[in-house]
Write a structure and sequence with these properties.
about 60 residues, alpha+beta
């Protein structure tokens, strides 16, 4: 998997998490005016996602 950083139609930074098969499995859901803010969010996700619990809803 890899994070892809790009600019949207509003020229804001966004990220998406892309699987090895090319499918997007997650995205930022919002644009960031500053590239640094977008990169900070990616770093935060990379640091904390391994500890994320799994919640099942019925």
């Amino acid at each position: 998997m890899k994070f892809v950083l790009y600019r949207d139609a509003k020229n804001e930074y966004r990220w998406k998490l892309v699987a090895t098969n090319g499918n997007t499995v997650a995205d930022s859901g919002e644009g960031y005016k500053n590239k640094a803010d977008c990169l900070t969010t990616i770093a935060s996700i990379k640091k904390t996602v391994a500890d994320a619990p799994i919640e099942e809803k019925s």
